[in-house]
Amino acid sequence: MPDGALRADAETLERLYRKLYLTRRFEEVVADIYPTDKIKSPVHLSIGQEAVAVGVCDALRADDVVSGTYRGHAAYLAKDGDANAMMAELFGKDSGCARGKGGSMHLVDIAHGVLGSSAVVGSTVPIAMGYAFALQREGRGRVVAAFFGDGATEEGVLWESLNFAALHKLPILFVCENNGYAIHEPIEKRWAVRDLIAKVAAFGLPASRIDGSDVVAIRAAAASAVAPMRRGAHGPSFMECTTYRWREHVGPNADFDAGYRSRAELEPWAAADAVTRVGAMIGAAARQTIESEVDRQVRDAVAFAEQSSMPASIELKTHVFA
Amino acid sequence: MSSLNGKVPASNGARAGRMLRYVDALAEAVAQEMERDRRVFVYGLDVDDHKRIQGSTTGLLERFGAERVFTTPLSEDAMTGFGIGAAMAGMRPVHVHIRMDFLMLCMNQLVNMAAKAHYMYGGAVSVPMVVRCMIGKSWGQGAQHSQGLHSMFMHVPGLKVVAPSNAYDAKGCLIAAIRDDNPVIFVEHRLLYPTEAPVPVEPFVVEFGRARVMRRGEDLTIVGISNMAIECLRAAELLAEAGIAADVIDPVSLAPLDVDTIIQSAEQTGRLLVVDNAWTNCGASAEIVARVAERPVRNRSIRFERMGFAPTTCPTTPALEQEFYPNPSRIAAVGYRLVRPGDGKWVPDPRRAELSYQVQFRGPF
Questions:
Q1: What's the whole-model pTM score?
Q2: How far from B346 is each of B244, B272, B330, CA to CA, in Å?
Q3: Are A164 and B121 within 8 A, CB to CB?
Q4: Which domains does chain B have, with CATH numbers?
Q5: Is residue A141 part of a domain?
Q6: ipTM passes above 0.90
């Protein structure tokens, strides 16, 4: 359960707040637009979970790499993925980050180190590991952060990947965004053993559980995990970040009336919301500047998406082969 | 570098005259590409053990070291994704599987990720990865060590599928596969490993999407896939003894598929027999016959037959296994009935058929 104080210098907090607010605002706008049917792919919103991606990515370098999930808006934006290209992708436009061929679940921005995300749970984890292998051979101290949900820990491929990454000491930070549900099924109905950290530790990785609302703690944990990786030969680490999905699994709405979870379950998470808490910790003037700049950035992204063209029909058959 | 698609590389001088086994051609192709390109690496269960994937990775570890030639845990799913990620990062992985059946453990990564990455990420990434896999046969390989599953991969846009039938094509196709910017499923057959052909010493590529006409004849077109290309050549020898001349075509690459060469031949002979090293149901043979039937210009009608695995699981006992596979005698008999439908009694002389079956294939490639 979230608790504890956030402690970081003002500059760091302002930087974190900018990303937290961007992610939250971007998705709120997406949710607002969604009923108009301008958005042409299903959206799995990160609202409530932003602190995990924002905290981890703040510990990364610009030339580091992240891989995300179908709930990947936060990781994409936190790693400085192009917001215009992302919104255009949701609108199905030619200027989208995947040229309108991927949609919300397949965001990609290689220039900013965002590997493509996937709609098949766990499937990006070994790919992130292969990327980490290439970075290890490159020897420039770059690392990969692989985001995945608690559901991915039920896929065999995750454990295969942990074993191989540990065996070859690959520079990869595994980040489990544990929001307690896979689609609508709670962990109690899925895990025989609740202690994920113990399971991971058995594979030979340093592993820690962190309050996923505490963006500063997440940032600190990620920074201390990747620092030795950059020096080489340290190998992977694992973070389990407990968090909570505020909206429905897919779509723009809340779903506390659906019966599988209660609104009371949300309350402690909402009270610990990183966006609200970090926003309250920075100066009013700085906050106002950040918010107005981000609001404009999101408005610009919507305008960019609106004004972009749909792909020409010839695009259907391009990119089948490289 | 040279490309000799569709031609018999028989008069290529002394360099082409060297006979090389299929298995050694595989190892030579990879070694030459690893020499040429630092990004190439070879991995997979047992690539570095004393048996070296029946000899097909021989010498690679000694020459290029464990950094570029390494084994894996028995984690086919993750190890496929690992290769995809390395390929996206600019490396050139060659993932080796000693049996094609094990690709079933890789399907999610191959079908949902490797095949789709270039398209669903709008061209932002490519996956230049080779997946080598070997089909087994005989010595009781049985249900899970003998499957020819190439049609499953042909079905999926974004994957290339090649199945070379001789040492020349094995080397040229493997070099082409490593240099290709797309995922390539490279299908080998265990029984082809000891077969020899003239193979140039220097690196060369066999381009995908160009079928090879292995034998010329005007009465019948026979298409043979993978090891069946060799069985079809033997069947053609038996048919020749009955006065029937067959075109024998090896597609070499199944995706892309050079259907034009097959159509051209079938239009001339009016008879097409497709023999696959797999089941016929929804298989490569079904695709080839359909594409020929759908040909845009139809100058004459064409009669079709297909042969492949019996519609059963592959049994281990030789008593049943020999009934499971097409063989030269049976292929010849079906070909004969296509050409002379009124005269259905001909079967090859069993002694000649046996001899044909056992003769070591030594070319023309």
A1: 0.95
A2: 12, 19, 11
A3: no
A4: 15-198 (3.40.50.970), 212-358 (3.40.50.920)
A5: yes
A6: yes
